[in-house]
Amino acid sequence: MTEVIYLDEHSQPIETDREILAALDEITDILAAMTKEQRIAWFRRTQYPHPINFEKEIDGTVYTVSTCFDKNASESLEEKAQRIILKRID
């Protein structure tokens, strides 16, 4: 079984759902305070090139991230993210 580890913006592991939700809230607040142009620039700076596969070493441990996307999926990554966020808001 593959273990999934979420990392914060400082490449530190996030260990609980509460931390993940708090990080999402913080990012949302930051983005809400930006102009449209600033948000677009932020997303361009923070997006990964495609494909999203990379390795990162943290404290002597190498983490490998590999992704794959179902071309026949019923929703895009953006739509899925919106669905998850909106579900949490309701």
Q: Can you give a write-up of this model?
A:
This protein is of the alpha+beta class and 90 residues long. The protein has one domain. It has helices at 17-32, 36-46, 77-89, and strands at residues 6-7, 13-14, 54-58, 61-65. The strands form two sheets. Strands 1-2 form a two-stranded antiparallel sheet. Strands 3-4 form a two-stranded antiparallel sheet. The longest helix has 16 residues, at 17-32. The protein is globular. The chain starts with 5 loop residues before the first strand and ends with a helix.
Lateral strand order in the biggest sheet? 1-2
User: Uncertain spans, ≥5 residues at pLDDT below 50?
Assistant: none
For the record, give the distance between the C-alpha atoms at the N and C termini, rounded to a whole number. 33 Å
Q: Return the domain count.
A: 1
Tally of strands? 4
SSE order and pairing:
Blueprint: E1 6-7, E2 13-14, H1 17-32, H2 36-46, E3 54-58, E4 61-65, H3 77-89
Antiparallel strand pairs: 1-2, 3-4
Quick take:
The chain is built from three helices and four strands, in the order ββααββα. With 90 residues, it is an alpha+beta fold.
